[in-house]
Design brief:
Number of domains: 2
Number of strands: 5
Strand content: 5-15%
Strand order of the largest sheet: 3-2-1-4-5
Helix content: 40-55%
Largest sheet: 5 strands, mixed
Low-confidence stretches: 255-293
Length: about 290
Amino acid sequence: MAITVTLDSTFVRSCEDGQRHLEVRLGNVEASNGARQVFAAVAKTDTPIEELIRRGLREVGQTADTGITAFTDGCSGLRSILVKAGVTKRPYLDWFHIAMRLQHAETTASTLSSETPEQVKAKAVIVAEVERLRWRIWNGKVKDATVTIERIRAVMPVFQGEPGCRKKDPPSRRLWTALREIDRYLSSQSAWLVNYAERHRAGLRVGTALTEGTANFLVNRRMNKSQQMRWSRHGADLLLQVRCAVLNGKFGPGVGQLFDAGTGSETATAACPPISRQSRGQGGTALTEAIQA
C-alpha cells in the first residue's frame, strides 16, 4: 500500500486587531486502497497540524514499510511541517500551482494584438511556445523551459507600439511578467519537480488538486469567499476541527476523542451538511465544550 499526503494553505478574514487574515493549513492523507482523511488547522493555535497529519497516516493504515509521497506548493514552511510529522521523503512540487501560472500566461498570450502580419505571426509563435512550455514541464523536461522563454523573447519586439501600450499594463508586458514569474518559480523549485506525465500514466497523483477541493469545502464555501465573514483565530480553528470530523466520519458521540491516537480507522464520508450559524466565529460555547470534553 502507498500513501499520498497533500499539504496546502489558504486564508480567512480575521476579526482580531492588527490582523487582516488568518492562515489555514490543510490537506489530505490518501491511501491507495481508497481510505482518506482530511485535516486542517489555523496557524498559531493549540491545534498541532503535525499531529493531525500523523493521525491521518495512522487512520489510513500506515505501517513501517508504507511508502509515502507528499506534495506542496513549494512553501518551505509547509515542507518543514511535513518533516516534523515524520514525512521525511522530499515532497514534490504539485502540478496544480504550476498549471495555474501557465494558464495565466496562456490567457494573456491570447490577448496579444494581431493587427499586422508580423504580430499575427509572432502571436502564433508565442501561443505555440507557451503550450510547448506546458508539455515540457509536464514531461519532466523543465531544463528546456529556457528555450521557450528565449524564443518568445525573440519575437516580443513586434508588439512595441501595440494598441494599449500607453496603458500601465499592455498585454505584451503582462505576458512577459508572467513568463519571468514562471521562470523564477521553476528555477527556485527545480529540486522538487517530477515527471508528472509518468506519474499520471501510472495512475498516481500529480499534485494538490484534491486539497484545493478540500479547501473549497472546508474554508471557502462557508468561511471566506461568499460569506464575507471575519473570524477569531480560536473560533475559526474550532469550526475547522468540526468540519474535518464530519468529513472524516467522526462527528458523533466520540467527537471529544478527535485527537485520540487510538481511534479506529473509518472511511471518510462523501459530503458534509452545513454547520449551523450558531457555531461560527467567536460564538458556539457548547461547541467548544463538546470538543474539549
